[in-house]
Specification:
- By secondary structure, the chain is of the alpha+beta class.
- It has a domain of 142 residues: Thiolase/Chalcone synthase (Peroxisomal Thiolase, Chain A, domain 1, 3-Layer(aba) Sandwich), CATH 3.40.47.
- Helices cover 37% and strands 25% of the residues.
- It contains 10 helices and 13 strands.
- Strand 12 and strand 13 form a beta hairpin.
- Helix 1 runs antiparallel to helix 2, helix 7 packs across helix 8 and helix 9 crosses helix 10.
């Protein structure tokens, strides 16, 4: 068994009000009055108040844009090179901040035995893992691995990897860090997919320290994992690289697919762990969007505040892809009372359509 010791989070410099981002989008997309009203309605129904970005333009007047060309300009939309340059300048410092917060009052950086980096919004070689080794002065012989391009569910996949390491190596101390700069990939064509992604996504990083049971530290015990692919949703959520950035397909059918399949997925995960829905006190669900959370609430017949932590993260940050479910888990861990006995069910979704789950507990 392994345990989650602590979680640290970080966001980039620029905090944007959702209403201000709406103004930016209406200007860039050059919508007519009817379409502009429709977009305004979608933003008001998003459940999001703020999002963070490595780009300042979203809260500026068009004349002051720096990363994106002004509307009507002959300049092209930023190239993949320009986007990756900003990723390179921002990702490692943000990940470093999340890791340092995670380690506060826990252990020194040089005690980390394994490093797992996660990202689907930027890639290079040498990559984020080597940058962090240098920035944090981690051991040069540290075990390292990178998880790339899995999307929003990658944090749970990384937890699964960390858990496996801890089961096989006593005294393992695994640091995993999810770092995403989703807003770098904004596209100026007003397609349904582009409008959906520009409505939802923000930037952020989350670091998690996972330790073996043999390590004398308090933590949240990881009990079980379960994942499943829904092939009928393969074409409804995707993430591909193009010359102008990474392009997302995000069909409006995704919430319906999740609503239809989530209860069955949960039941299989519960059966594997030997528990029932009634044994769960906290629900750590990735806030992929307000409609997705509503779909899960309907699927599981929730009546109260079961998804309050997911809704709070969506409201404060939007969907940051892989770190987002860890922001939710951090809120849950902060609410836990000393000596409280509780089980946590976590789930996240991504391209495939892939659904990943975990179950954790305050007791061994």
């Amino acid at each position: 068994m392994s345990k989650i010791i602590s979680i640290g989070t970080a966001v980039p410099a620029f905090k944007h009000e959702q209403n201000r981002i709406l103004t930016f989008m209406q200007e860039v997309y050059q919508l007519d009055a009817v379409e502009a009203r429709k977009l305004k309605f979608l933003y008001r129904q998003s459940g999001i108040d703020y999002r963070y970005s490595a780009i300042a333009d979203f809260s500026k007047d068009a004349a002051d844009w720096n990363f994106f060309p002004p509307v009507g300009s002959a300049d092209p939309i930023p190239s993949i090179e320009k986007r990756m340059n900003l990723y390179g300048a921002t990702a490692a410092p943000m990940a470093k901040e999340a890791i340092e917060k995670c380690l506060t009052n826990q252990m020194a950086c040089d005690s980390i035995t394994h490093l797992i980096t996660v990202s689907c919004t930027g890639m290079s070689a040498p990559g984020l893992d080597l940058e962090l080794i240098e920035l944090l002065n981690l051991p040069k012989n540290i075990y390292r691995s990178s998880i790339n391009f899995m999307g929003c569910y990658a944090a749970i996949h990384a937890l699964k990897m960390a858990h496996a390491i801890c089961q096989s190596e006593s005294n393992a101390r695994v640091m995993l860090v999810c770092t995403e700069l989703c807003t770098l990939h904004f596209q100026d064509m007003a397609s349904a997919d582009n409008i959906a992604s520009s409505l939802l996504f923000g930037d952020g990083a989350a670091a998690v320290l996972v330790a073996s049971d043999d390590v004398d530290m308090q933590g949240l015990y990881i009990k079980s994992f379960y994942s499943e692919i829904v092939p009928k949703g393969k074409d409804d959520m995707s993430w591909v690289i193009a010359s102008t950035g990474f392009l997302m397909t995000l069909s409006g059918y995704v919430p319906d697919l999740i609503q239809a399949d989530f209860e069955s997925l949960m039941n299989k995960a519960m059966k594997k762990a030997g528990i029932t829905k009634e044994d769960i006190q906290y629900w750590c669900i990735h806030p992929g969007g307000k409609r997705i959370l509503d779909a899960i609430s309907k699927s599981l017949d929730f009546k109260g505040a079961e998804l309050e932590h997911s809704l709070a993260v969506l409201k404060e940050y939007g969907n940051m892809s892989s770190p987002t479910v860890l922001f939710v888990l951090k809120k849950i861990m902060e609410q836990l009372q000393a000596g409280e006995s509780a089980n946590i069910f976590g789930a996240a979704f991504g391209p495939g359509l892939t659904m990943e789950t975990f179950i954790a507990s305050t007791h061994a």
